[in-house]
Inverse folding.
């Protein structure tokens, strides 16, 4: 038996199709994936964007007469954070002693839907969540906007973890914010669109050097064949075509695993957290390669709820 050093951990990406608009089925499928990844030695398990209840591949087809019915079903399937599905996954992560990062559709008490990533601890508790700051183009028909309060990094037994969702990576200041948080392992959550392949390749490799971190890029395989029978395809079954492309990248841009296409699989790679220091020696973006006398990031961390309560207390 080979004993790994304290800084060498095994990362895993779940490249499985989601249970589209099926929160209970997707929860059990997530737990099955966590169990399988843990059995293969994984310490950290990452799922794709909006994987629990599914990415809304139909989001741009708003002129179709069945669009609203499909959107309504999609909204009704979204889960609460915290909620029973999220709690079940947290317990599963704890039972197997792994850190889990999972993308899901979150529905709050106002019925707004958010594109959210949830961080689950190996102790069975929810570490935190991050709501996507800016839905892209027609995604704005589906998801509400997040704010700057929940972009965080978390210290775990397997490194300091954080992440961004899809085209948040194209927000240069969001990447720099992650750099300032000292993220060692960056979860990069995406859908499986083939047209994104060159964008994602450029993004994750550049980020791995820019922020001197390991990048775990999670994407899914999907097709109309995976939909529950009776789900409207809006006359365009090709909308649901997604071919994966998940990968794990080392600081500096080298692929450690993947990208893997056109297969339901769990991708793993060993990552040596200490290896980041060589890249940091070249460029420490928020450290000794920063020039705050020239450029500074102003990051508003205040929550931005739509309603703020001002209540009188005795003595006011």
């Amino acid at each position: 038996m080979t004993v790994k050093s304290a800084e060498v951990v095994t990362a895993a990406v779940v490249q499985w199709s989601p249970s589209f608009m099926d929160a209970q089925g997707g929860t059990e499928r997530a737990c099955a994936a966590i169990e399988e990844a843990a059995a293969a030695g994984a310490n950290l398990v990452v799922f794709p964007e909006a994987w629990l209840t599914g990415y809304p591949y139909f989001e741009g087809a708003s002129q179709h007469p069945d669009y609203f019915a499909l959107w309504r079903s999609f909204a009704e399937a979204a889960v609460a954070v915290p909620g029973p599905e999220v709690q079940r996954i947290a317990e599963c992560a704890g039972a197997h002693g792994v850190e889990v990062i999972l993308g899901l559709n979150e529905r709050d008490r106002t019925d707004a839907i958010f594109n959210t990533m949830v961080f689950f601890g190996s102790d069975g508790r929810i570490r935190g969540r991050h709501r996507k700051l800016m839905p892209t183009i027609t995604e704005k028909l589906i998801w509400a906007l997040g704010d700057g309060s929940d972009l965080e990094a978390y210290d775990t037994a397997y490194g300091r973890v954080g992440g961004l969702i899809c085209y948040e990576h194209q927000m240069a200041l969001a990447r720099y914010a992650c750099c300032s948080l000292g993220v060692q392992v960056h979860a990069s959550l995406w859908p499986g669109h083939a047209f994104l392949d060159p964008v994602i390749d450029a993004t994750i490799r550049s980020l791995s050097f820019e922020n001197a971190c390991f990048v775990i890029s999670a994407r899914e395989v999907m097709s109309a064949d995976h939909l529950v029978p009776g789900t409207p395809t809006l006359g365009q079954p090709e909308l649901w075509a997604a071919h994966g492309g998940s990968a794990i990248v080392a600081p500096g841009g080298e692929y450690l695993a993947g990208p893997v296409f056109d297969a339901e699989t769990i991708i793993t790679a060993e990552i040596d957290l200490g290896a980041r220091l060589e890249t940091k020696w070249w460029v420490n973006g928020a450290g000794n390669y920063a020039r705050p006398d020239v450029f500074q990031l102003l990051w508003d961390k205040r929550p931005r709820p739509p309603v703020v309560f001002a209540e009188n207390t005795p003595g006011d």
Remarks:
- DSSP finds six helices and 13 strands in the chain.
- The first helix runs from residue 23 to 39.
- Helices lie at 23-39, 67-77, 84-96, 172-180, 197-210, 276-282.
- Confidence is low (pLDDT under 50) at residues 1-5.
